[in-house]
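Narrative summary of target 7.
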Amino acid sequence: MSGREKVLVLYRRIMRAAKSFPSVKRDRIIEDIRVEFREGSGLVDEAKIDERVRVAQRSLQELESFVGMSRGGSDSIEHTLRGSCE
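Modeled conformation, tokenized:
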């Protein structure tokens, strides 16, 4: 898989996670992701590209942990929220 294809797969995963992100700011987050990737599409410096990919991968991990997409499901989030209110 080429570098471009890897970035595209990363972009799709981030967008999928962002669309499931439980926040009133979800639309703004999605737009910020689009802008970041669009701005990065013109980069040619491999070091800058690699750094942006690393940042995107960390961001994806954070999003997935909030969304529960890391195979943990949303039950744990729901139980935590219920437990704190009772």
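Residues 3-85 form one domain.
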